[in-house]
Amino acid sequence: MDSIVEEWYRSAEFTDAQQQAIAEARQRFHAANGPTTKGTIDRIAVAITQTFTDSDAMVERWPSHIRELMNRFSRYPAQPDRKFETWARPRDQEKRKQAVSVWISLLAFLVVNWKSYGADGALESMGLNLSWALKDDVDAIRYYAKSGRSLKVLGEMTNTFFMKMIKDATANPHTNPLTWWLAVLIQTEVLDNQPRWTVAGVQDTLSFSQKVEAIDHYARVLVLEDAIYRGDLSPAQKEDLQSSLNQVSISWIYQDAERPAVGPRQALFESVSHKWRTYTEYMRPIFAEWLTGQSTGPMSTVILFLHGKLENPSYRKVYKVKMQIEEDFSIDPMTAACYPGYPD
């Protein structure tokens, strides 16, 4: 695993200056104990924890063959029939806190190092060149968290940001926050031994491989939820699906019990009914596109680190080019196919 990680990190081609900037920024992050910064991070942490825990629990309402499909795409290649299992039960509290903290740390680190438009050199100096759309999201999340507004809305904003990362078809370590964050973790925790994170009161105890598993777990939850609420299902299909899911009790999760057994007749019905076949075929290409080792998004790198099975990665270099366009207009219809018209 270490050789794969190191090879991938070298292929990302972070300069010495960028590596130094990352190391210094991480030290500043550890020392950022001001009330405003701490309050902002704490609100982001609460929002992400609430939305992730709720969404993770909701997965258990889905039929077993859908939860199996979630895991089929390269997550557990030796156990293709292993079903996705929630980490939302009380017994999983410490595991859940640590896993969610991986995502919180990612976003908190971006927010702390983001100041305002035109002053985002800290991230760029660390080798991360965000698109304007992602800059808008980071700026909005930072403002919303500082303002103390609705945690539910803040959670929805963070989920939207995370989904943009996951569904980035041109992801590379210098433009995609998730892939870049993997590089940060490798530099500071695998190749170096910098102090562990303490974010929103949670002391990091996870190894790098455990962090990768945490990223993988919640990415699958996010992709499933996104497919339901923001995918291509018709309003009628969404209503029908939601009605079917609402009929499934998940009270056993909060009671810290085991999942109730599903009778063979019910399992057969769910797997062969036209309705569930339709939803299965809808989900299948979505999972295949974003949650496999062949994905062009960042999850292919996550799966590489989980299983060590991927061809040597290569990334397209992205260059910023300034362009100036000058147009000459003519009022002569004989010399221009389109013209402003004759002056009065």
Descriptive notes:
- With 344 residues, the protein is mostly helical.
- Helices cover 59% and strands 1% of the residues.
- The protein contains 15 helices and two strands.
- Strands 1-2 form a two-stranded antiparallel sheet.
- Strand 1 (198-199) and strand 2 (202-203) form a beta hairpin.
- It starts with a helix and ends in a 37-residue tail after the last helix.
- The model is unreliable at 310-344 (pLDDT under 50).
Shape: globular
Main β sheet profile: 2 strands, antiparallel
Determine the N-to-C terminus distance.
75 Å
Cross-sheet strand order for the largest sheet: 1-2
Helix-residue proportion: 55-70%
Proportion of β residues?
A: under 5%
Q: What is the average per-residue confidence, as pLDDT, rounded to a whole number? A: 84
- Overall structural class, as computed from helix and strand content, comes to mainly alpha
Order of helices and strands: HHHHHHHHHEEHHHHHH
Ranges with pLDDT <50 over ≥5 residues? 310-344
Radius of gyration: 23 Å
Number of strands: 2
Helical segment tally? Answer: 15
